[in-house]
Amino acid sequence: MATINRRQWLGRAGLAGLGLxxxxxxxxxxxxxxxxxxTNEIGFAKLNSNENPFGPSExxxxxxxxxxxxxxRYPYGKMNELAHLIAKKEGLSREHIxxxxxxxxxLKATGLTYGVNGGEIITADPVYKSLLVYAEQFGAYINRVPxxxxxGHDLDEMEARITKKTSLIFLCNPNNPTxxxxxxxxxxxxxxxxxxxxxxxxxxxxxxxxxxxxxxxMVSLVKKGKNVVVSRTFSKVYGLAGLRVGxxxxxxxxxxRIRKNVMAKANMMAVIGAMAxxxxxxxxxMSLEKNKAAKSIIYNTLDxxxxxxxxxxxNFVFFHTGKxxxxxxxxxxxxxxxxGRPFPPLTDWCRISTGTIPHVEKFAIALKSVI
Length: 371
Prior knowledge:
By secondary structure, the protein is an alpha/beta fold. The protein has two domains: about 25-55 and about 280-370, Aspartate Aminotransferase, domain 1 (Alpha-Beta Complex), CATH 3.90.1150.10; about 65-280, Aspartate Aminotransferase, domain 2. It has helices at about 5-20, 25-30, 60-65, 75-90, 105-115, 130-135, 155-160, 185-195, 220-225, 250-260, 270-280, 280-305, 325-335, 355-370, and strands at about 45, 95-100, 120-125, 140-145, 165-170, 200-205, 230-235, 245-250, 310, 315-320, 335-340, 350-355. A seven-stranded mixed sheet has the order 2-8-7-6-5-3-4, sandwiched between helices. The protein has a three-stranded antiparallel sheet with strand order 9-10-12, with helices on one face. Strand 5, helix 8 (about 185-195) and strand 6 form a beta-alpha-beta unit. The N and C termini lie far apart (about 55 Å).
């Protein structure tokens, strides 16, 4: 009797459930009739992971299909080619770029590099924790600074806590989960000053969603030779979260130190897809427009319900429900909507990702029925 593994079974069951007889390649090449139709359109509104449901773009899909013959080759040459493209875009050398399987891998490698054997890392709280949790596993002490009353980084308090033991300061800007943006003058002044005393890490996963035209990336300080590390990803605006491609930007000596601790590398199809995404301006612009439209629906819904929220510079919105998030999650899931996980100590707040318009509208209906 022939046997199939779990992946094969799920693939066949999924296609059968959808009534499809297309081959995997046909599905990849022609997922929907609409040019930018979202993936996984099966009725359940998955709005809990800050994903871009419109990716990968058709340009990226086609590039990966055409590169299938390279699947037998190791990806290192193409990865180096991608790194050169990123360096050129940023106006830096290849040595400034650390390639990794999603920016999360870069965060973890940095957490290991600067947190091992009791290194102190100062961070806002709550914030995206991959770097922090991984650093703690290797003996780091995490010095958590509560957010200020505007749900943003308390830069004065973070600077005040720096000691000789401080090995790194972590900034998530825009911040996850609150969506807040550090005022640009305060950011530049803080990073320029503090980077003379320790390493400053600026997580810029959501940088593309910032609408302030002159808002600076901290790559500008890397160019000045400062002790600054910046992380970027192809997961958000490019819609490639499932492919796992990200990178760090840092002074070459810092980059080399972190690079030694990177374990996960992107695969060939992911690298090819990322290279194609960098030139897909049409999809990039569409993603930003779709995100803007979805946020508008979320804002209107929260205004109608009288719920406080934080104006967002990301692809999600953080709002105050007044209810325990651990109780709200199953209620919303019962309505077919997945919302963000708890972010202690703000456990009566909720993070909702933008998604397709139908899914965001489904969220609005569900929220009104449970609040």
